[in-house]
Amino acid sequence: MMYLVDTNVLLRLVDRSHSLHPTIRTAIRKLRQNGDSLHITSQNCVEFWNVATRPIERNGFGLNPANADRLLRLIERLFSLLPISLTGLVLSINMLIMTYYCQGILIRSRIQDVSKQ
Length: 117
Hints:
The protein is mainly alpha-helical. The chain contains six helices and three strands; from the N terminus they run βααβααβαα. It has a three-stranded parallel β-sheet. It is globular and about 40 Å long. This is PIN domain-containing protein.
């Protein structure tokens, strides 16, 4: 199965002092052992950079650009970066969800209805 990794997962993965760090490392390892593929998008990279370089007093990591770059390069080695076309697909799905105001389990059925039109 293919998974899109949330930026919060990436942030906790590189923050060894965070309480969720061990859980996230274990989850990623198990997914890979199961043959699942883990992906990120350019949006993840932008969000990661924002938090990594933001001052600690503003809920960031307070890293300088060189250290943030080092961690981002590590993330890019660990996870496959989805091409723009697939990212565009995700954005299209999000647009459909917002256009038809889908919530909860209705999302799947409404997307199927739209695809039949």
